[in-house]
Each structure stands twice: as C-alpha cells, then as structure tokens.
Amino acid sequence: MRLKLRPCAQLARRLARTDNAPHHIINKLAFDDSIEVAGPVLRESGRLDAKTLVANARTKSQPHLLAIFETKIPRGRVTDVLVTRGNREVVNSVANNNGARFSGFGFCT
Question: In this structure, what are the phi and psi dihedrals at residue 70, rounded to the nearest 5 degrees?
C-alpha cells in the first residue's frame, strides 16, 4: 500500500527535478519544517545555491542536514555547517564521503 503524500510533498517531488522551477517556490519548499516536503528539494534540486543550503543547515533539523548532505554540491561552507551542527550520523556520513570538500575549518572540526 502506497502512502498518500500531502499536496506540498507532491509538489516538492515534482519540482525538485525541474530545471526551471520557480526559484521562490523551491526555496519555500526547501525551508519547510517537514522533511517530507523539504527532503526532495534539498536532495535533488539544482536551483539551490550554497548560500541557501548553508542558511537551511543552520536552522533546520538533523533529517534536513542529511538531505543537504545528499545534494549534488556538498562543498566547503555547506560541509562546515553540516559537521558543526550535525549529529553523529550526519558527521559520519560527511566524513565517509570521498566527494565531500572540506575547508580548513571543517577539516579541523
């Protein structure tokens, strides 16, 4: 049996992979408190820049941090926030990723 998704979660799944999705809607979905809504956008949308991901990582939950880590661009500043705010699961995921880029600060943390 398939669970029925909330309308916002359905919209997030559809727009997450859309290259020309409206920027303001993608940002709003990415900052939703529900990981069911924010997760697909954080993981899959190419419309989110590093600044937006950092802002999200500074304020949202651990599941949000994991979703951000799974994005295509976990680099420097984003990675720094993930290892600073993340719980053990987030930090271990980042540390075990050969593609993650760390700044000097992030590496020391």
Answer: -80, -5
Output the six-digit token pair for 18. Answer: 């859309």
Q: Provide the b/e sequence for 94-107 (b: ≥16 CB within 10 Å).
A: beeeeebebeeebe
- What is the distance between the alpha carbons of residues 75 and 102, in angstroms, rounded to a whole number? 6
What pLDDT shows up at residue 103? Answer: 62
Q: Which of 88, 90, 89 is nearest to 68 (CA)?
A: 90
Tokens of 76: 């420097």
Cα–Cα dist 66/100, whole Å: 13
51 closest CA partner among 86, 23, 12: 23
pLDDT class of 37 with cuts at 50, 70, 90: very high
